[in-house]
Amino acid sequence: MKKNTSRVPPDIALVPTTRRRRIGVAALAAAFSLAALYVAWHEANGPDARPTDELPITQARADAASQPAGAAAMPAGANRSALVKRGEYLARVGDCAACHTADKSRPFAGGLPIDTPFGTIVTPNITPDPDTGIGQWSDADFLRAMHEGIGKGGERLYPAFPYAEYTRVTEQDVLAIRAYLNTLTPIHYTPPANSLKFPFNQRWLMALWNLFNFTEARFVPDPKQSAEWNRGAYLVTGLAHCEECHTPRNFMQGLKSSARFSGAVQAGWHAFNITPDKISGVGDWSNDELATYLATGAAAGRANAAGPMGEVVADSTQYMTPFDLRSIVTYLRTVPPVSGGESRPRHQWGNPADDVTALRGTAIHGVNGAQLFVANCATCHSWTGQGVGASAPGAYPSLIHNSTVGASDASNLALVILHGVSRTTAHADVLMPAFGSQLTDEQVAAITNYVTRQFGNPQSTVTAEQVGKLRTP
């Protein structure tokens, strides 16, 4: 309300009495509604709340290599080693090591900085060390963190820890993971503190975030769907937390439910659209191609995993059972397709190059993408861009019909040139050297633009300035 600067006597109201009363009643009603909403939310999500929808996932059977997630609780006399083995498998499905390992000599000891729009969050130590890890956590403490996003001391956890997805994981599976973590070597290490700007360093504000972006509820199988579909839904929306990377976020950094799995940018890397849209997504991939990509990181004529997805394959999905891989594919086939506006699939671009003949005997002035490609890339990818070794596990991939090269955003290609590729699976040890220390931003941009123009989407370009930002995210 603006300050009264008129000559109306101060004891005369600025608004009619009736209007003022209406405003007062409306304000009181709004306050009461907010209070009632908070009480209702707290009763449903508070520390003592217990979900009523945690039912055995009888429809979600895995094969013998992995116990069915959410199957009936193990008998008291069950072999503990089997429980631990199951927990190890589930921890791989959840890719726990990826976030909780900053130094490979200290696995699960945390310390990995995660950059967010609100500051940097550093992952905690989850080894059973009693002082710096979770050695003094009870099973109830662990369940509460996974299902409700609340730590041992009652502090609210930040959603960089994907409890919004982990809440769907059954109690039996959470306790199996806990049993496995208890067998790890305790590491006495306290990670650095978070570095968040005010007011985002106030954990109590997470109650407001949760109100709009989090619903505590265990996964409930759909009796109308197959066992594979239910298992896939349980993994994708829960422990594997695929949406965390492949779904764009709203202004609060919650997941945008209207665009699930349609692709998003994480630390400069574009996690592609994995909906069944035939142009923007993976709708024209075969089931075998999708499962092979998750198991090996490569699908001939389609894609080769790099960056964060390469790490997911190396640390997590390569270890999944064939049943679980098929189940993930089955579920993803049924999510609503989302178009990204592309004119053709990412893997359908490109033709072999013959620039090497044109360069012979030609004086090069300035930064030339073709020359830089021949000098730095052709040894492995061939000067024609067709790669070496065809579709063999250890082949140098073709840049033609390559989804990274054919993407509408050239950032992933530039990042691969800058940082290289390192992906070790049971099928192959894939290594591409990083050129970031050898090439300038202008040179990386020139190679990127040459590759996209010749072998991929010619409308996808990057500037030296953009490369600089990608170099140091």
UniProtKB/TrEMBL annotation:
Mind telling me which InterPro entries this protein's record contains? Cyt_c-like_dom, Cyt_c-like_dom_sf, Cyt_C_IC, Cytochrome_c-type_DH, Membr-bd_ADH_cyt_c
Q: Where are the transmembrane segments?
A: 23-41
Q: Where is the Cytochrome c domain?
A: 82-185, 227-336, 364-455
Please tell me where heme c 3 binds in this chain.
Answer: 377, 380-381
Q: Provide an example Pfam family for this protein.
A: Cytochrom_C
Q: Where does heme c 2 bind?
A: 242, 245-246
- Note on how the cofactor is bound: Binds 3 heme c groups covalently per subunit.
Which PANTHER family does this one have? ALCOHOL DEHYDROGENASE CYTOCHROME C SUBUNIT (PTHR35008:SF8), BLL4482 PROTEIN-RELATED (PTHR35008)
Q: What is this protein called?
A: C-type cytochrome
